[in-house]
From TrEMBL:
TM helices/strands, residue ranges: none
SUPFAM superfamilies named among the record's database cross-references: Phospholipase D/nuclease
InterPro entries: PLipase_D/transphosphatidylase
Taxonomic lineage: Eukaryota, Fungi, Dikarya, Basidiomycota, Agaricomycotina
Database matches in PROSITE patterns: PLD (PS50035)
A Gene Ontology molecular function term of the record: phosphatidyltransferase activity
Organism of this sequence: Lentinula guzmanii
Span list, region Disordered: 547-578
Residue intervals of the PLD phosphodiesterase domain: 240-267
Biological processes, Gene Ontology terms: cardiolipin biosynthetic process
Protein name as annotated: IQ calmodulin-binding motif protein
Length: 750
């Protein structure tokens, strides 16, 4: 442990020296040129991707510096016609968030703070498949996408740990090589992960040698086992705290998977969305920006953008057949998907070391659903427990047994059976009822990594991810739903309570005890139980003496900025975004910033009630839950590694959603690289919520008490086993040090 801490200290010193040198170089740069503004860049056709296609020998990192090192600041408001969202107009709230992202990128001076070329922030796409399932079930879909690849695969993950889960991927790479050989082709595969080392103090992107990525800790296949694959592996970390926390995959520049899971064995429920359409080009650009260094061999799909191709899933007859019955246009719901599993019990399960690949998504759905169907002599929940018990800790002592009541036999398939693969019909998108679906508005809401150990809120809230999170919550009029492993980002907390106070229903699902040790480190801001208690009962969130981490407004809290699509009319009515002052100091401006948030637009007086905890009536609009697995009737603390949840999603007013890699925690807001996509669709949000509620028992059994923010057994009143409550004790920082080391090693939650 001490060796790890000494290495971290050395990396911190070297990183500080590196950034000092970078600042000197920037000061020496010429300032006499006329540089573009962020709005000029957004309207340009030049991107990292287009320049890489023109000259694939140039490193993407050098392209990025050439295009985006010098940007002229501007006080102008964003033109109303910015953004290529396709033919479906975005809602005023969506457009307001996009404009705020641009304003804050301009103010930050770093237009690549969102890890994507400015013209590709705005996009559009479809979501043919969503997965809410244990980690291996998501990796099984990844493996099927890999074996069906024709030219290239780009896979990015935070942790890659040799495991049963990683074997599902490596089995697929071997199968891909075999299929490519049969075609007489070679496929290019790029793997990007984070395994921090001292060398990254000088160069953040390290090409991983063959001897390292084939060792027993990583165990990727050597060239002789995949002769028809050109594979390159890069290790990416920005010391000290700039973790590459991203998890995504792009295949043949036709589809992208954006997921919450790493490549490792654990007990997590996870979420993955399959994206198709122009948004894939945006994520392809993210691939290049994240890789940064040389690509040898180059990516073969560099000059074949997704926007020029048909939507793969919605041109697949077998996928379309999922949504019709007896040759009619009658829609097929999740109950029919579940029934398909019962009708396919002869299908073998797709397992590490014993793979069974499918040629279509429809085949994957039938196979995965069959694995959840009860075997002879097995109840429904026993089948779920069998499927969930995949790690050694879950299988210990006979395995985790179901405790939830069995659903009645007549309601099992119709409403209760777990349905991890959730296909979305063409009718979920505009025009899909009569023809090919029209892509809906999307944008990339991400953030670049920051290694410097700083917790400056004025700096942090300018990242597109954080702007999107905070603006969505500030703009909510009816409802906010959040599922995240942990929630302790200080800029978020006052905004949640303010939403409750203006009448918004706020629902938050977190995982009991998720990475408690790491969250007890100084400046990490505490555990889920501590934060839940503060949200319900802390008057200090809104007093003018609030010193912890005052939130800074991103746009004025005016009526126009919070209009619903039906109320707003012309998008030009959206309030002008507010530009933050980058020089704001966290402590010196604590009172000023907190005070500013307590004043409504056009008012000069504080609201007296905002210095008080939530009233009982207000608390009724704030519901916080601890995750409860599909087979359980109570939460299980994360330290037991039996049933945990790692999903990251935010849904506002049932039409605007942000999904991807970002937690609602301090590390995500201040330091890690995160990739998220924001979309605007009532139908997609509806189907996501249906899947989230159906595939876990959180809403049924996980409600915490507003008295202390903790879950209590409804029969005994006791807290869950292992829970530490709202007071972690005097030496909580020591637990935090241990947790930090576990995270670096991949043993803790991340």
């Amino acid at each position: 442990m001490w060796r790890s801490l000494l290495e971290a200290l050395l990396i911190s010193i070297l990183t500080a020296l590196f950034f000092q040198q970078q600042r000197r170089q920037r000061r020496r740069a010429s300032t006499t040129m006329t540089h573009p503004t962020i709005y000029d860049l957004v309207q340009s056709t030049t991107t990292i991707s287009s320049e890489y296609a023109r000259d694939p020998s140039e490193e993407p990192g050098k392209i990025t510096k050439r295009l985006y090192s010098h940007v002229r600041d501007t006080d102008e408001s964003p033109p109303s016609n910015l953004g290529s969202f396709g033919s479906v107009p975005p809602s005023p709230l969506f457009l307001s968030i996009y404009h705020s992202i641009l304003v804050n990128l301009a103010a930050s001076g770093d237009v690549m703070a969102g890890m994507v070329s400015p013209p590709l922030i705005a996009s559009s796409g479809v979501v043919p498949l969503t997965i809410v399932a244990p980690l291996p079930d998501i990796v099984k879909h990844m493996s099927n996408c890999i074996v069906r690849a024709k030219k290239e695969v780009f896979l990015a993950t935070n942790f890659w740990i040799n495991s049963d889960t990683s074997r599902i991927v490596t089995d697929a790479l071997r199968e891909l090589s075999k299929r490519a050989g049969e075609r007489g082709d070679k496929v290019v595969v790029k793997v990007l992960y984070d395994r921090g080392n001292v060398k990254q103090a000088f160069e953040h992107h390290q090409h991983v040698p063959l001897s390292t990525y084939t060792n027993d800790k990583v165990n990727l296949p050597p060239p002789e086992e995949i002769p028809n694959i050109h594979m390159e592996v890069v290790n990416y970390h920005v010391p000290l705290l700039g973790t590459f926390h991203s998890k995504f995959m792009v295949v043949d520049r036709e589809l992208a998977l954006l997921m919450s899971n790493n490549i490792q064995d654990n007990d997590n429920l996870e979420m993955c969305v399959r994206l198709e359409g122009p948004i894939v080009d945006s994520l392809y650009d993210v691939c290049l920006a994240s890789w940064s260094t040389t690509l040898n061999p180059p990516l073969p799909c560099r000059d074949s953008p997704a926007m020029s191709k048909p939507l793969p899933s919605y041109t697949d007859p077998s996928f379309l057949a999922l949504f019709t019955k007896d040759s009619t246009k009658e829609p097929v719901d999740l109950s029919s998907v579940a029934q398909a599993g019962h009708d396919s019990l002869d299908l073998s399960e797709h397992l590490p070391g014993n793979p069974h690949y499918d040629t279509t998504i429809a085949g994957e759905i039938r196979r995965i659903q069959a694995s959840y169907a009860p075997k002879p002599g097995e109840t429904h929940l026993q089948a779920v427990s069998r499927h969930f018990n995949i790690t050694k800790m879950q299988k210990a002592d006979g395995g985790v047994q179901p405790t939830a009541p069995e659903p009645s036999s007549d309601s099992l398939v119709s409403s209760e059976e777990m349905t991890p693969y959730i296909p979305l019909p063409p009718s979920a998108f505009p025009g899909g009822e009569i023809g090919s679906p029209t892509p809906i508005p999307m944008l990339v809401a991400s953030r670049a990594p920051l290694g410097t150990p700083t917790f400056s809120i004025p700096q942090a809230v300018k990242y597109p991810q954080n702007v999107a999170f905070l603006e969505a919550i500030r703009g909510a009029q009816k409802s906010i739903f959040i599922q995240t492993p942990n929630l302790n980002a200080e800029p978020l907390l006052p905004e949640l309570v303010k939403a409750v106070r203006r009448g918004v229903q706020v629902e938050i699902w977190v995982c009991l005890g998720y990475n408690d040790a790491g969250e007890l480190l100084p400046y990490q801001n505490g555990t889920n139980e501590m934060i839940a208690n503060r949200l319900f009962n802390d008057p200090g969130l809104f007093t003018t003496t609030h010193q912890a981490h005052p939130s800074v407004p991103v746009v004025p809290n005016t009526k126009e900025s919070m209009l619903t699509p039906n109320e707003a009319g012309d998008a030009s009515q959206v309030a002008e975004p507010h530009r933050l002052n980058e020089s704001d100091d966290l402590n010196a401006n604590a009172n000023v910033n907190a005070n500013a948030q307590d004043v409504e637009a056009g008012s000069s007086e504080l609201h007296p009630k905002e210095a008080q905890p939530l009233s009982e009536e207000e608390k009724s609009r704030l519901k916080i839950y601890n995750y409860v697995a599909k087979d359980q009737d109570k939460p299980i603390h994360n330290k037991f590694k039996k049933r945990s949840c790692h999903i990251k999603v935010l849904i506002v007013d049932s039409h605007l959603a942000i999904q991807g890699n970002g937690n609602q925690d301090t590390q995500t807001y201040f330091h890690s690289q995160e990739i998220n996509v924001m979309l605007d669709s009532e139908e997609v949000c509806k189907r996501w919520m249906e899947g989230l509620r159906r595939n876990q028992n959180t809403e049924k059994y996980g409600l915490v008490s507003p008295l202390d923010g903790c879950w209590h057994d409804p029969k005994t009143g006791e807290m869950a086993e292992g829970a530490i409550g709202v007071d972690p004790g005097r030496f909580s920082w020591a637990k935090g040090v241990i947790g930090a080391v576990q995270r670096v090693r991949g043993a803790g939650g991340f």
